[in-house]
Amino acid sequence: MVGNEFIKCNMCDTTINLRMQLGYFDIPFHLNCPKCKTSIDGKILLENVKHYEVIINNAYLVDEYDYNFYSVELSAEFPTRKIKEKNMGASSVELSPYTRSLQWYHNAIEPQQIMANTMFFANYYKSKWYELKSFFELFWNGQNHILYKKIRNELPKYPHLGVTKVANNLDACVCLHQLLITTTGISNILDKKSLPRFIDIGNTILKDKDNALAYEEFIVKVEKNFTTTERKAFKLIESFAKIYEQLIPVIILKRANTLDSVDKERYGIMTADFEELTSFYAKSYEWILENLDFVIGLNNVAVRGNYNSFQKENKTYEDYLKLLKGNKLGWMNKDEPFSLPIQSLDSKKRNAIQHFDSEIDYVTQKIVFRDRDNIQSMYLMEFASLCIDNFELMFYILELVYNLRKIHYIKQHFVPHFKEISFSNNLRIQTKSEKVGRNSPCPCGSGKKYKKCCLK
């Protein structure tokens, strides 16, 4: 359903038509008056598809309007055409944002299915997020006697969780990670191919028995950072949740793998606040740079057999740690196995976004970054996509930390109580009793006997 309201700019009384595609989500919006460039923002609060309330700043609603006006399309779910001039005498009928958006999808059902999935995270965050966060805080703070009892109560609710009971930190680690990935709706935000790929790459840490001792040495080096990394990641997830509704049109297009098909000169997203997106982008990029330490060390182990062995001659891991964050990316070989998901990181874009003067014209939706004579630009929709990419990379690094944690606990002789569950196409972890026999398959899933694998 498309609703129409007319507003006038507080500063110059220019008439603007708000043409609203009413859907599942409230519609935040940000625009500049086409005449005087004054910032106008607000939100369409939906009670249902027929009833809504318009909250607006720097403009006011009107019942009578001018013959000539500007028209702005608003949608929380779909790209919209950019601001254009219209008049009451125009006879042409415009497609709704929903109908027009069908050109970017494979069929009419696809966007509806993806949209329903994207709603899951928004609803989970409002209702259950802080309970899950509390479980992680118990884990980080070593409150095991409380945590194990709490998670045991969750096991009947989530039969897909990979343990039969929670008796130690390895069991708790597995449960918490799976709760984060599978019950929050986060997996519906990530690219469909990304999560299986992250899991497969993470599992190589468990399966690479030739370098098992080298991985253990690296874990001794970095284990003290696991909790800090996860705590900061949770703060970023909460920051992302606050801008989540602004990103939904782009998330839906990325999930359908059709974002590149959208003509960004003609269509954009009126939902996004550039300043709020910039804050998340900068913080998430800094977190990723901080935690390249895991990627770099794992590459050194996988390729050269020692976390201290770099391609650069006579350089050590300690030398790398002394680098400024912005220089760490230059030490990462993008062709090495743990670097493959990090290809989207672009230091030039990051420097422009974080260090150049920037401004956005909400009429054209073009962002311009200036540093003296150096000028770069991109559309708001493209910048929103970069924010989602950073969110995705956070979960890649968390997957690496998760697998390092598992090895750490196995080496502490924690015996897992896994169900038979497939973590990837190539790895199956079997249910184990509390005691694992020397000649039994190793619970880490390597396929070797316990005495020849993790018992060593």
Radius of gyration: 25 Å
Poorly predicted segments: 421-434
Structural class: alpha+beta
Q: How many strands, which pairing sense, and closed or not: the largest β-sheet?
A: 5 strands, mixed
Query: Percent range for helical residues?
Result: 40-55%
Number of helix segments? 14
Mean pLDDT: 89
Share of β-strand residues:
15-25%
Adjacency order of strands in the biggest sheet: 6-1-2-7-9
Shape descriptor: globular
What's the β-strand tally?
15
Tell me what you see in this structure.
With 456 residues, this protein is of the alpha+beta class. The protein has helices spanning 97-101, 109-127, 129-140, 144-154, 169-182, 194-207, 212-222, 226-255, 274-290, 292-304, 317-321, 325-328, 347-355, 380-411; strands at 2-9, 15-21, 27-32, 39-48, 51-57, 59-62, 68-75, 80-81, 84-87, 267-268, 357-361, 366-371, 374-379, 421-422, 428-429. A hairpin with a 2-residue loop joins strand 4 and strand 5 (51-57). The longest helix has 32 residues, at 380-411.
Structure described in brief:
This protein has helices at residues 97-101, 109-127, 129-140, 144-154, 169-182, 194-207, 212-222, 226-255, 274-290, 292-304, 317-321, 325-328, 347-355, 380-411; strands spanning 2-9, 15-21, 27-32, 39-48, 51-57, 59-62, 68-75, 80-81, 84-87, 267-268, 357-361, 366-371, 374-379, 421-422, 428-429. The protein has 456 residues and is an alpha+beta fold.
